[in-house]
Every structure is written in C-alpha cells, then in structure tokens.
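step: validate -> pass
step: tokenize input -> pass
step: predict -> running
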Amino acid sequence: MDCGVPTGGLRERKKAETREAISRAAVRLALEHGPESVRVADIAAQADVSPRTYNNYFASIAEAVCAGPSDRALALAEAVRRRPADEPLDEAIANAIIALHAGAEIDRQLVRMITCTPELRGEFFKAVFAREAALAEVIAERAGAEPGDLYPQVLAATISGVTRVVTHRWLHDDTSDFAELLRTALAMVAPMARAPAVEPPVR
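step: predict -> pass
step: emit ->
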C-alpha cells in the first residue's frame, strides 16, 4: 500500500513503518471479519502497538483501512508536479498515474470492500475530493491558468472520473489488467489535456 520509500530521517521512517503496520493489520482484520466487526483493540494487538499509539495515527477504523488507497490518491498531484517541465500535460498526468499504480499492490478484495461499505467508501471519497482539488492546482501551474479557472477544474474532475470508471471495470472483470485499462482510458481524454486553457468570455 505504500506509495514510496519515506524520505527524511530515522524517526520519520519509523513513523511511516508503524502507520503502515497498523493499516495492514486493519485491512487484514476487515477482510477476515468484516469492517463492522473490527475494533481498535484488535488492530492494535495485531500490529503490536498500544491502542493509544493507534489513535496517534488514525482517527477511525475506516481511515486505517483506507490508508493505502487514500495515500495513493493524494500522491497524484505531487507526482504530476515532479514530471519534467517540458513533458506535455497529457503525458505528465498519464505517466504519473500509471507510475503510482504500477508501484502498488492493488488488492481487488480491499477495493471491493471499500466500494461496497458506505463508511469506507465515504472515507475514501474524502481523499478523492482532496486529490481532485490538488490536481487542479498542478494542472493550472503547468497550463499557465488560474486554479479557479474552469479548465484545470474540469480536467481534474475528468481524470478523477477516468480512475473511477477504470476501477469499476477492473472490479467486474477479474481478467482485466488495471494498468492497461488506465492507459486506454487516459488516451481517450488526452486531447482535452492538450487543449489550450482558454476561458470563455464573460457575457
């Protein structure tokens, strides 16, 4: 579920490892027993931490279960920002998304559980909304537009929609490859990412 090797010192790495261990324990228990049957004490015991330590990292069980997918969603804007400045916007977005997912173990069972459980789905959608806003800012930077302009906001919402449609297709076809579906779907909206960020005149 981790989106990359944590940077910084030993303390930061240890904190990231603890958070990862707690989240993995939460996922295992939720998949085994159902998220509604999991308690903080159960997760803490399996992760070999105290309930107090658990509460230092997560405010709810849903947050712990969704941590991996949420982290990956929130990492998108920064991944696009790190792409080469001379890379076309459509390629920068596609390459960033594919790289993020290529380096992750995406568990169909976990994603199905999140999409089918209202509390988990609501928790994950918080990250989706935050991702969309952050992505709009990066698109505006690269396109020379204002973050509040329609173009970056519409393009960010379109990219978010692409990932949602691809995820739905992938969940209902066990023979499908997530990365390949992403490439195909992103190619369909690439012309929009190549369009000039021109605002219509105010009437």
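step: describe -> The domain at 10-64 is CATH 1.10.10 (Arc Repressor Mutant, subunit A).
step: cleanup -> pass
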